[in-house]
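Researcher: Here's a chain I'd like modeled. Treat it as a single chain, no partners, no ligands.
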Amino acid sequence: MPGPATILLFCGVSFVLVATPGPGVLYVVGRSIDQGRRAGVASMLGIELGEVVHVFAVALGLSALLATSAHALDAVRYAGAAYLVVLGVQRWRNGAEEIEGDAQPASPRRILAQGFAVQLFNPKVAIFFLAYFPQFLDRGAPILPQTLLLGTLYIAIAGISDLGYVLASSLIADRLKRSAAVRRRVARGSALMYIGLGAMAALSGERPATS
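Model: Modeled as a single isolated chain. Structure tokens:
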């Protein structure tokens, strides 16, 4: 197993990586500002659950198989991009209705499921884990338990960091959303952000995966 010094180094590097705003952080922040703390926490939990799946995929070698197929990577990437765009379109349509009281906000369970799907269909996470974890593994010890340990630590650190973003964003939202006009603009801004994230995901295939 990795020694204490290696684990401390892994935790420090992981904190820097997860605290740096990326697509996942932007998604959680957008949810928090748009729909409040509960929605932000639900989306955060969904994101982390998606990462749990990616950790197990790396530990079991499934991500390595995915990485060898450009067509499979493209299929997953485009599916994730399309899902984000669909979420954006739905948010644009539903935002005004929620503000006017004609539609109920999405439930935390549904928001959690959406966050899970967003992260699950992000192949860059799988490729990142596949490249990142081996740098901290002890080659003389069984790989599976080490990968699961590192994955658990990474997700715990990511959860703490994302929760900080949720709390900060929801505080900002409480001050911003004091009128229907501002709430409408926030909802539309959130919708455009989801669509933008989807476009970025669709166009990122030729770039190296770093997060």
